[in-house]
Amino acid sequence: MKRFTSISLALVLALSVGLAGCGKPDAAGAGGQQGSGQAKEKVLTIARSGDILGFDVHNHGFTSTESVHANMFNYLVKRDREGKFQPDLAVSWENVNPTTWRFKLRPGVKFQNGDPFTAADVKFSLERVAQDAKLVENGNYKQIKEVKVVDDLTADVITHEAEPVLLSRLSRLGSSMLPSKYIQEKGWDEFLKKPVGTGPYKFSEWIRDDRVILVKNDDYFGEKGKWDKLVFRSIPEEATRVSELLTDGVDIAVQIPPTDMKRINNVNSTQTISGPTTRVMLLSLRTTSGPTADPRVREAIDLAINKKAIIDSLFEGDGKETLTPIIPGIFGAKPDLFGKSNYNPERAKQLLKEASFENGLTINFTGSVGKSLKDKETSELIAAMLEEVGIKVKMEILESSKFNEKRNAGTTGDMFLVAYSNSMFDAALLYKRLKPDTGYNNPEVTKLLSDAEKNMNAQEREKQFQQAQDILAKDRPQIPLLQLGANYGINKRIEFTPRIDEITYADEIILK
To answer: How far is CA 191 from CA 56, 181, 195, 486, in A?
Structure first.
């Protein structure tokens, strides 16, 4: 790693090492028993970095929230660990024509309030997210024109244009099936207080900013849940999550800092498990106004950032440099843009001079706490690197909920840091965020991405995405930094294998 001479940069690197704290174990206990003299209850307790956003399955874009929803609700189609489509609420499907997909539904399925699941629920669920532009997930489902109810167990999903990735859309967040009769009779507010799904676990309690509790659904249509109770605890502080794991307060702790992994592995009852993710940490830059509207400034920012130093100092080498947010394994990836960096601080200084900023400039930079592992520290380290080449940074670090509000409102300043996953396993998903985040408008890129979205020829579609990535890598409306891995701490009494999509399905976790 290059040795930096700036005092400010050295301080940031020094501050990147956190101190472990102490936490109080969960009162209910973790790992499977509760109450003296009572029958043993299998309880799985998971420490997460933040609370859920709520129970509107269509109005969030976070894997962490979906990891709770996925145990309560079902999709029409689901992906297995290898990424292959499997039946869920639909037992079969066919592409009748480029704009019509027919789904045969599983018979005998009931919502957790006893209402039967029918094609009317498919129509209600998908048309809601497809037609309400205020919903966060609308952009990923507005391709759906309507859903026709053929009969109680047959639904036709009709799209505006040819839709090559409809199955991918219907196997991810934003596509959970909702109980239309319950919502129409009780109202949306009542549903949000007492949510009802078809999944293996049902809602019990939500103590905001503390925990969500689910209990086994004995009427689930599939294999019955392996756990009597699931407890998803909200613990934003990394040190506290680690402490809770080490004191048997939780069974699983997410987003373990690399610096704490050795300590966890040195305890007899705990261990760490790591796995790859589809998540890429990147900078989104405003391209419509301010200094970052100048492509030379955006290039200078890219060249000023030593991605390897970020990976080595904050992630202990666990990360992969990238020039694209579409990593290998995602449809449309361009492998020759992966595993690379443009680091060249001297050229960055020259570019700023060419852009008439030889005396420096100031940019507004928004970061967050709690959205992803080491977001805050990464933001501070990037700011120090930019100052090395003459870019002064006016930094704002926000809690994740406040950050999300500002990002959705488009008020994050010249640049913000975010880590995006790809639950669709398709390049189309990440590029949906491109213009809203940056204002970027290149007609050639727009045409390539628009054509790819409706191209049923997979080989042509892949080339369109790859051509778009070559242009984006030069224009830099986004500056991809690194592919993130996922580090978990677990109690050895459970068997747990992380999924690349980062979704936590409780019934894939086994009590030994």
So the answer is: 9, 11, 5, 33
Of the candidates 412, 411, 311, the one whose C-alpha atom is nearest the C-alpha of residue 367 is 412
What is the average pLDDT value for the chain, to the nearest integer?
A: 91
Flag whether the pTM goes above 0.90: no
- Which of 164, 167, 483, 445 shows the shortest CA–CA distance to 335? 483
Q: What is the DSSP letter of 331?
A: B
Distance CA 362, CA 290 (A): 10
Closest CA to 113 of 223, 194, 230, 215: 194
Reduced 3-state DSSP string for 128-188 = HHHHCCCCHHHHHCCCEEEEEEEECCEEEEEECCCCCCHHHHCCCCCCCCCCHHHHHHHCH
How many other CB atoms sit within 10 Å of the CB of residue 212?
24
Residues 54 and 176: their CA atoms lie apart, in Å, by: 14
**DSSP code at position 258:** G
- Strand order in 154-159's β-sheet? 90-97, 100-105, 154-159, 144-151
- 230-247 pLDDT, tens digit per residue, is 999 999 899 999 999 999
Burial of 148 (0-12, 13-18, 19+ CB in 10 A): middle
Outline where DSSP puts E strands in 30-121: 43-48, 77-79, 85-87, 90-97, 100-105
End-to-end CA distance of the chain: 42
Give the residue among 35, 59, 25, 65 at the shortest CA–CA distance from 232. Answer: 65
Distances 446 to 179, 428, 453, 455 between C-alpha atoms, Å: 37, 12, 11, 14
415-420 and 270-285 strand pairing:
antiparallel
